[in-house]
Design a protein that fits this description.
This protein has 9 helices and no strands. It has about 190 residues and is an all-alpha fold. The protein folds into 2 domains: about 20-80, Alpha Horseshoe (Serine Threonine Protein Phosphatase 5, Tetratricopeptide repeat); about 85-155, no CATH class. It starts with a helix and ends in a 13-residue tail after the last helix.
């Protein structure tokens, strides 16, 4: 009983110690974009220039419709860490929505080079082709929304695959099944 009380107290203490970055990520994933932006701004005030906080702030601003602020944060993140894929995708989405097809194409291409998931890569290619012709504002909004949905779906699938793999490893460990390298297996 005492150990349960100690663990519960420790958990409460840890919740209160969450960093602004962790709080920002939680708010972002929970759809609380104003709150997320505040937390990422606080994190950047404490440690200016952290690319992950700039990306979080950029995504939160994008979700709030503040494309200029989002673009500034994401462009700074790319300047600091050019091989991180996510800011390239969101800069492309901003380019699509603002009618800057050159920037959109450049960032979509870079996102593809950095290893977009296969289904999303095909969608990115189709979008790049469509941007070469006349595109209405409504179609731009549709393109941006569908790419963002595809990106989020790919993340959810990757998370589900990781969770399934982790669950399988827990079962194997609980049953004390150990996988030996091929060279050690009996024939």
């Amino acid at each position: 009983m005492t150990s349960t009380l100690v663990l519960a107290s420790l958990a409460l203490l840890l919740v209160g110690c969450a960093t602004p970055t962790v709080q920002g990520r939680a708010a972002l994933s929970g759809g609380r974009y104003d709150e997320a932006a505040r937390h990422f701004e606080e994190a950047l005030a404490e440690g200016p220039g952290r690319a992950s906080d700039l990306v979080g702030l950029g995504i939160a601003r994008y979700k709030l419709g503040d494309l200029d602020q989002a673009q500034r944060a994401l462009a700074e993140a790319v300047a600091r860490e050019p091989n991180v894929p996510t800011p390239h995708l969101y800069l492309a989405l901003i380019g699509i929505r603002q009618g800057n097809d050159t920037a959109a194409d450049e960032h979509l291409g870079r996102y593809l080079q950095l290893g977009a998931p296969p289904r999303l890569a095909a969608q990115l290619d189709r979008t790049r082709t469509a941007l070469r012709g006349p595109v209405t504002p409504a179609m731009r909004e549709y393109m941006a929304a569908s790419l963002e949905d595809g990106y989020q779906w790919a993340g959810e699938v990757a998370g589900a695959l990781r969770a399934a793999r982790d669950a399988e490893l827990r079962v194997l460990a609980a049953e004390r099944v150990y996988l030996l390298p091929r060279a050690c297996r009996c024939r």
